[in-house]
TrEMBL record:
PANTHER family: NICOTINATE PHOSPHORIBOSYLTRANSFERASE. Belongs to the NAPRTase family. Pfam families: NAPRTase, NAPRTase_N. The modification Phosphohistidine is found at H216. The keyword Oxidoreductase does not apply. Residues 7-127 form the Nicotinate phosphoribosyltransferase N-terminal domain. The gene is pncB. This is Nicotinate phosphoribosyltransferase. It comes from Paenalcaligenes hermetiae.
Amino acid sequence: MIITSLLDTDLYKFSMMQVVLHHFPAAQVQYRYQCRTPNIDLHPYIDEIRDEVKALCQLRFTEDELNYLRQLRFIKSDFVDFLGLFHLPERCISIEYGDKPGELAIEVEGPWLHTILFEIPVLAIINEVYFRNTQPEPDWAEGRRRLQEKMRWVTEDPELTDFKVAEYGTRRRFSKKWHNEVVVTMKEQMGNHFAGTSNVWLAKQHEVLPLGTMAHEYLQACQALGPRLRDSQVFAFETWAKEYRGDLGIALSDVYGLDAFLADFDMYFCKLFDGARHDSGDPFVWGERLLAHYQQNRVDPRTKTLIFSDGLTIPKAIELAKHFAGRCKVSFGIGTNLTNDLGYEPLQVVMKMVRCNGQPVAKVSDTPGKTMCDDPAYLAYLRQVFHLPEHVESE
């Protein structure tokens, strides 16, 4: 088995799941898988993937795992009690051959509360099955050499005393074994530069900090769950604040593009949230605009944290850290470039929410080329409501 624990996923799945339990327990959703890497043939491995997912659906949280979650300050006891009864429902996921050569058609459909934990382990399974078949004898030495080089760029630069990087690479990792080695190595060799990991199982195993707040699916679902579409982003942030009372205060900024985010992120949210996370568009432009926005709302940017997590590499993170040094707090989440950099092309696989309560949902990105909305009429309506330009792509 690839996945041996339901904790082997990203922390923000649990933080969002708790909100779903307390605020949207009846919500019904649909997720759809997509591989953006061209000419990838997964057909030979479909039975292997199905077997791994079947095993995933047999897993339960152990008492030890539940006790670990209870110790996290923002996790509430009734949520842990619910997880004690939880398992992923196999009937809610279908894995079939896709329409195009080599493509898989994977869909998850059912109650949000019971299906939210599918995404990350399913993507990790697809990656590991693919790479263990196509690279049966991986070049671990090359992977270690690359990792050492990345760490040296940070640890040997005297200007980077406050530089912090977190590992965010569960969904696109080369393998669980390599993912574990990356976290262990970074913990041992980077000292205070290593902020932690998004992976809860590895955080527990190696006593490092689990990190994460919200993902795009949360704000997307609120398009269907809020009072009206135009207020959906405000509704999402207010519901989050009601649940966490100021904790887990990093807002995701790119579900409707930066202009729409800043229009909704008023003085109240500027003061209430600890900062924001960048995940599409030019990170330097985003950071400058956010700092100016804080100043316009009479908030000292130096008290706020900007988290960068969009396809980062260590050199890009260092460049950003030096650019914003002394003007705000910064932190970096690096995924694929840490957990799948052994010299082979990583798979660009995603599994996105496409419907909630029967209604289409979409993410409108500041980065072109990430379209994943199955209803052009809804997308046109969304653009109109949020005054979005036509060139902004959806996901």
